[in-house]
Write a structure and sequence with these properties.
This protein has 130 residues and is mainly beta. The protein has one domain. Helices cover 10% and strands 38% of the residues. The strands form 2 sheets. Strands 1, 2, 3, 4, 5, 6, 8 and 9 form an 8-stranded antiparallel sheet that branches. A hairpin with a 2-residue loop joins β2 and β3. The mean pLDDT is 86.
């Protein structure tokens, strides 16, 4: 089991290539109040199953490159995330420190589990050793 700790209020990003549009979709998540919250989702087009309007308590923003949904997204203690492969998905993750993990190479075809849990740094280090 791999663990990538994220401090409260820090964010991480999950990204994939849309299977129909063949364009990137980026989702930024933040750990707040004991939950993983989808803070923002960015995409280049809103066809083929991508959102066309803001969710409740969210905003739809257009900038020069992206269509952006900010706020009003997923807010859960845990969620599962399906990773594709070289051909479909090309998923990657960007950690709070900017490090990029190519999930489609490390975990092709796997289901990853993300959760918000409180733990001490010492407890985290101990769990990595044993």
């Amino acid at each position: 089991m791999s663990v990538c700790p994220v401090a409260p209020r820090d964010s991480f990003m999950l990204s994939f290539i849309h299977s129909v549009e063949k364009t990137p979709v980026e989702s930024e998540f933040r750990v707040l109040s004991g939950k993983v919250r989808q803070w923002e989702e960015r995409f280049l087009s809103h066809n083929a199953g991508l959102p066309t309007e803001a969710p409740p308590n969210g905003r739809f923003i257009m900038d020069k490159k992206w269509m952006i949904l900010r706020g009003g997204g997923l807010a859960v203690r845990s969620f599962r995330y399906r990773v594709g492969n070289e051909q479909f998905g090309r998923n990657y993750m960007v950690l709070p420190n900017g490090a990029k993990i190519l999930l489609f190479e490390e975990y092709p075809g796997r289901i990853l589990f993300f959760s918000a849990e409180s733990t001490s740094f010492l407890n985290h280090l101990f769990s990595q050793v044993f």
